[in-house]
Amino acid sequence: MVSSDVLLAGLRAAGEETRLRILALLSEGELSVSDLTDILGQSQPRISRHLKLLTEAGLVRRSREGAWAFFRLDETGAGGAFAASLAAWLDPRDPVLAADRERLSAVRMSRAEAAQGYFASVARDWDRLRSLHVPDEAVEAAVEAAAREGARGAFLDLGTGTGRMLERIAPTFGRAIGVDANHAMLAVARANLEKAGLSRVELRQGDIYALPFTRGSFDLVVVHQVLHFLDDPGRAVREAAAMLSPGGRLIVVDFAPHEMEFLRAEHAHRRLGFSKAQISGWFSEAGLNCDLAEEIKSAGGVSAELTVMLWRGQDRRKPAEQSLRQSSLEVA
């Protein structure tokens, strides 16, 4: 249900051909101003004016990624739900909309090729590092298993990289967001997620020490192979924990302590692994109980040069529903 003010503002903003076409395109997923100018064949200033009106009406949400601006339907508010309904009512066989979707496919293909070109340039280093530890499949399976418990409302992936954790976990959550500091890696993640049919997953360029989200907004936060790149990993753990809702869970995956000094020079590692005491200590300082600390092993049990560890911490506050239920029991 929406208020009359929201409905009237939405109708005024959407009641123009180009803006209606923009809403139809954004219902397919997040797009940049450049994407929309290529698809619609209109100038950047004109597209920007249309987007400004749609944003002010609460139908569309804007986010920055370096010098780029990305737009998506504002799924967090009533305006976005109204915009999604409008897009759903449109006839997909309409010649104009069908042509827009064809150009959208071409834009996505071009974007994917550029992203994979970047990834190919760093793949050799990635392959060398991956050869030192258990297969990625074993790590991903362990994270999935650790993420099965708890509420399934919102999921945050910090240092999302190629978006692989989002591919594995996002489909089971109502909302999923990936954050990375590297614009080129976000391009890779965006292409991978679109290929996997997960175009509604959100991607944001951001600072892991100063996340642009309301605190207490996520039921699950994952920090996968990120802490060893940071100068202050403890601070990053505290910031990640602050994003958790009461009873929410934080999963950290990283290396156990090791002595491979070449990783500092060749792979920009700042820390050579973390002990169980370090991570559990940071969890405790952040208000989390560490309920899982395990070594991730391959299916065949073959040991690797680098040991990959998984830690899981749970926010000590009780979820609202649980607290209310407990209060009612105490009163009874």
Descriptive report:
- The chain is of the alpha/beta class and 332 residues long.
- It has two domains: 4-90, Orthogonal Bundle (Arc Repressor Mutant, subunit A); 122-325, 3-Layer(aba) Sandwich (Rossmann fold), CATH 3.40.50.
- It contains 13 helices and ten strands.
- The chain has helices at residues 4-14, 17-26, 33-40, 44-56, 78-89, 95-130, 136-146, 164-169, 183-195, 233-242, 262-267, 276-285, 320-331, and strands at 31-32, 60-65, 68-73, 154-158, 175-180, 202-205, 218-224, 244-255, 288-296, 308-315.
- The protein has a seven-stranded mixed β-sheet with strand order 6-5-4-7-8-10-9, with helices on both faces. The protein has a three-stranded antiparallel β-sheet with strand order 1-3-2.
- Helix 3 (33-40) packs across helix 6 (95-130) and helix 10 packs across helix 12.
- The longest helix is centred in the middle third of the chain and has 36 residues, at 95-130.
- The radius of gyration is 22 Å and the shape is globular.
